Amino acid sequence: MILYIARHAETTWNLAGRYQGRRESALSARGIQQGFALAEAFVNATPPPARIITSPMQRTRATAAFVAERLNLPLETDDALIEIAHGTWEGRLRDEIAANDPARYTTWRERPADVAFEDGESLRDVLARWQRFRRSLRVDVPTLILTHDAIVRAALLDIVQRPLGDFWNVRVENAGYAIVDVTGEAWTVIEESVSAHLAEQRAAIESQAL
Predict the structure, then answer these.
(1) Where are the beta strands (DSSP E) in the chain?
(2) pLDDT tens digit string along 82-101?
(3) What CA–CA distance (Å, rounded) separates 178 from 208?
(4) Using CA atoms in the order 192, 159, 114, 88, what is the torsion angle rounded to 10 degrees?
(5) Crossing angle of helices 58-71/29-43, nearest 10°?
C-alpha cells in the first residue's frame, strides 16, 4: 500500500525566514498556488490518496484542505504530526538567532541531533513521536500524511534506518512529498522528494528558518 508524506505549502514566515515551530502563520501567495498544485498532483496520482491525516496546525490543515476538497475526503488530525517545538527560537528571524544564539545555531546546522531547544524539543523527541505514530498507523488504503519539515525528515530517516545526524541530508520541500510502500511490517521509500508538480512555484528552501 502507498503512503505519501508531504510537507505543508510555503507560509509567510517561511518567506520571511522566521522560526515557526508551534506558532501559527498563514500560507503565502506562493503557498496557496502550491496547495492547488499539490491537489492536482494527487488527483492524477496512481493511486490517489483515499485517506488524509494532518498535523492540527493551521498551515498543514490549510494545505491538506486543497487536496481534501479535490478528492472529496475528510481530514483527520493527529497531534503526533505537529512540528518540532523550537522553544525560545519561535517567532524570531533566522539571522537574529545566528547572531544572538550562535553556539546553539551552529550546532543545530552542523550536529542537529545534539540540540535540545530551550523550552522546546530535541530531534530525539520528534523521532519518538513519529515512531509512536508509525506503530499505531494502519495503512490499509493509500494514505496522505500532511505534516512539517522536521517530521518529514525524521520519518524518512527512521524508515531507511539512518541516524538523526543525517537530518539535513534529506530532501524536503514545501508542498513536496515522499512516496513510501508499506507492505506488512516492511516500509520502503520509493521516492524521497517529489516536486515536479510545483514547476515555477517551488520555494527557496535555503532562505527559510528550518
Answers:
(1) 2-7, 51-54, 75-77, 143-147, 177-183, 186-194
(2) 999 999 999 999 999 999 99
(3) 20
(4) 70
(5) 40
For helices 123-136 and 149-160, what crossing angle results, to 10°? 70
- 128 burial (CB, 10 Å; 0-12 / 13-18 / 19+) is middle
Strand partners, 18: 93
- Cα angle value 177/126/155 (rounded, 5°): 30
Over the stretch 185-205, which tens digit does the pLDDT of each residue have? 999 999 999 999 999 999 999
**CB atoms < 10 A from the CB of 98, how many?**
15
Cell 496546525 belongs to 57
Rounded to two decimals, the pTM is 0.97
